[in-house]
Structures are given as C-alpha cells and as structure tokens.
C-alpha cells in the first residue's frame, strides 16, 4: 500500500476552503466513481482500491490518500494530480 499526503496553505478561510474542497470532491466522484461524505471539517472519499480524506483548516488543507496494492505504482501520478487540483481550487 502507498500513501500520498499533501498539506497546502491557503488564505480563503475555512468555509470557502470547504466549498472548494467539495468542488474537488465532486470532480473526484465523477472521475473515479468515489463515494464522498463530510464529517465536521473532514471530507472522506472511498472507492475500490482507494480511500482518503481532505481535512480543511482555517489556513491549510491536508489531503491524504491510501492506494491499494494495484494502484500503488501510480502514487507519483496521483500526487501530481492532487497537487494540480489544489493549485486550481485553492488559489
């Protein structure tokens, strides 16, 4: 199993960052067929072979993704895609 973790600072405030995290999750759900749900300030997502979370704070967002055995070789690509999404949605 591979784990990808990225923390990104933002100046959006917690509520706006949550709105933008939801937009990222909507795209993820459409693209990967992932199931997403919020619990307080943490959005969790899951699908076969992948599970993770987006933890939204007042000035940072932490994304953690666990990849199953079949997807572990793609960890570098997954990290790159997460970084692109964070750049797009948190600016």
From TrEMBL:
Pfam families attached to this UniProt entry: PHA_gran_rgn
The protein's name: Polyhydroxyalkanoic acid system family protein
């Amino acid at each position: 199993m591979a784990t990808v973790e990225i923390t990104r600072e933002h100046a959006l405030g917690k509520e706006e960052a949550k709105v933008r995290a939801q937009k990222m999750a909507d795209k993820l759900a459409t693209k990967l067929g992932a199931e997403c749900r919020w619990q307080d300030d943490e959005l969790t997502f899951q699908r076969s072979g992948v599970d993770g979370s987006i933890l939204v704070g007042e000035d940072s967002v932490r994304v953690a993704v666990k990849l199953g055995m079949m997807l572990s070789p793609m960890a570098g690509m997954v990290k790159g895609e997460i970084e692109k999404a964070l750049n797009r949605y948190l600016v």
